[in-house]
């Protein structure tokens, strides 16, 4: 028996029961389901943040590596365009997560999910 096999068995023996108990808890499941539903928005926001700070920032890594300041002298203006988009997507995502956690809690308590706001 290899080291990895014994490690996997130990993890299954100790962590799987804890994970099962946590997964069956209503509050944790409601938060989990809220984040799972908003995952596409999380990915889009992450890409916008990456573009805004890594590529469009004049002091950013990729802009310095590719010398984008000499090619595009107005990188600050492009970054100023993406900043409200970034803030708006993160703000909308947080409102959706708060709504979805309340909705999932209402569903788990078998209440009307539309009045859970």
Describe this structure in words.
Helix content is 81%, strand content 0%. With 117 residues, the protein is an all-alpha fold. Helix 3 runs antiparallel to helix 6. It has 6 helices and no strands. It has one domain. GO terms for molecular function: transferase activity. Keywords: Membrane, Transferase, Transmembrane, Transmembrane helix. It is an enzyme of class 2 (transferase).
Please supply descriptive tags for the structure shown above.
transmembrane; mainly alpha; 117 residues; 6 helices
SSE diagram, text form:
Elements: H1 3-24, H2 26-37, H3 39-55, H4 61-66, H5 68-71, H6 75-108
Helix pairs in contact: 2-6, 3-6
Q: What class, by secondary structure content?
A: mainly alpha
Write down the overall mean pLDDT. 88
User: What share of the residues does DSSP label as strand, in percent?
Assistant: under 5%
Number of helices: 6
Let me know the number of strands.
0
* Helicity level: over 70%
| Major sheet | none
Quaternary structure: single chain
The total tally of domains equals 1
Question: What is the first-to-last residue Cα distance?
Answer: 53 Å
Unreliable stretches: none
Radius of gyration: 22 Å
Q: Which word captures the global form? A: flat
Short summary of the structure?
This protein is mainly alpha-helical.
